[in-house]
Amino acid sequence: MAGRSQQKVDSAMSEIEASGVKGSLSAMQLDVTDETSIQRAAKTVEEKHGRLDALLNNAAVGSMDPDIRTRMRLSMDTNVMGPTMVAAAFRPLLLKSSNPYSIYVSSGMGSLAMLSDQSVDQYRPLPNNAPEDAYRASKAALNMVAILEAKQYSRQGLKVFAMCPGFVVSNLRGTSEEARNGWGGDAKDPEISGKIVLSILQGERDADVGKFVWKDGPSTRINERAQNEVSGIGT
């Protein structure tokens, strides 16, 4: 487990361990906007384990700053540049694994195909018409990063996925109960997201390698089932 704040990562790890999870956990500091921090984390994994079997790029922000330059820069730095640098730093360790997975936690909000499909009107403005351009654009860019990695490294055995975790309870939208629960209380149990990741790591989604996936399959186009998956920042 890794995060910008060592204290918060340690706290999250303790909470998970208290739930009775099987296996062992370790925590380290990693700030995706700090290249030194990224390289230090990769070095730590190399020294302790010698390889990496799976990398889950989950860091993100949902900036709704009223200043467009501020929210664009923050979103792109954290949601695109960060995961791209993390992937590059850890990729040599992934390629030492016999069955490596590289997973990017993206969003249906970044799917050009889903948003432009006229067969289903799935666009839902955020509460109070909060700006969503930066988040959507950053996730669209992240999808491209994932697809390119899949194209470039699949022959070396790297299995790459971009995944939509669904609209679940999260601090991404803010730490108030209203924001965590999706303003209208529509956010679902984050266990849904965990099950998607687990299904990928257990090889159940290998037929969809190199694609943008969600809980019910690859999101190659919008359909009625996807409406609830694309309902606000955090999906």
Write out key terms for the chains shown:
alpha/beta; 7 strands; five-stranded mixed β-sheet; disordered C terminus; two-stranded parallel sheet; 235 residues
Overview of this protein structure:
The chain has helices spanning 6-18, 35-49, 68-94, 112-116, 133-153, 177-180, 191-201, and strands at residues 2-3, 28-29, 54-57, 101-105, 159-163, 212-214, 217-218. The two termini are 21 Å apart. Helix 2 runs parallel beside helix 3. The strands form two sheets. Strands 3-4-5-6-7 form a five-stranded mixed sheet, with helices on both faces. 34% of the residues are buried. By secondary structure, it is of the alpha/beta class. Mean pLDDT is 83; it is low at 220-233. Strand 6 and strand 7 form a beta hairpin.
Shape: globular
Strand content: 5-15%
Structural class: alpha/beta
Which spans of ≥5 residues are poorly predicted at pLDDT below 50? 220-233
Average of pLDDT: 83
Q: How would you sum up this structure in a few lines?
A:
By secondary structure, the chain is of the alpha/beta class. The protein is built from seven helices and seven strands. The strands form two sheets. The protein has a five-stranded mixed beta sheet, with helices on both faces. It has a two-stranded parallel sheet with strand order 1-2.
